[in-house]
Task: structure prediction
Amino acid sequence: MTPVSLENRTVLAVAGPDAVAFLQGLVTHDVALVAPGRAVFTGLLSPQGKALFDFHLHAGDDGAILIDVAAERADALLKRLSMYKLRKAVTLARRDDLAVLAAWPDGGPADARTPALGARWVGAAGSAPAGADAHDAHRHAIGVPDSGDIGSDDLLWLETGADLLDGVSFTKGCYVGQENTARMHHRDKVRRRLVPVTITGDPGDATEVKDDQGRACGKLRSRRGAHAIVHLRLEAADGPLFLGDAAIAVRRPDWLRAAF
Result:
């Protein structure tokens, strides 16, 4: 497919001699893995392990790290990173001359979460037509959560599926929120997750997922037609589930199967 620009994303740059070390102590994945042709999906968490920001890291020129983040969260992330800067030899800036580009169904460099999403990279602004809406429909069809589903200071990082979508390293060392995230992983305490579902019928304006006994067991996070992402209690995944008057069925794409 012809590349499109994801106009709902903004590119930030972390440059300077301490760029990698600066981010390494903050984010969930190993920043040292970022290289030309290889991006990393990661998050910046609260001390309690809740996702504040999720983003992709790409290699820039002269050792810079480019951050591909939801446009509506870019200024807040820039402000947050500035709080941690202290005396580090880094500069933080928006790069409005750059854009996040994508192409699917396949191609490279692959989206860091799963190759099923297709290719994702950073290029010159204005080099491709806008395509965020088409990409969002594709993403829902594949069944992968995104920034709008994750929110900010709402879900624990592992509840977003980050451990299944290569968004966390359990060997890299300390980062903000690492203690609770590692404890959940090693004790297998992830009881709720963002999962894709298929909707049959008209849910109306309903947002609460219920079982066949009328008990609440999840929340709608986003929807594109019959495809949706819900935050669900996993023990309810195999039973009849409803969103308003519509029936919903949990999908199990390859990336999610290890959760069940």
About this structure: The first strand starts at residue 4 and ends at 5. The mean pLDDT is 96. DSSP finds five helices and 14 strands in the chain.
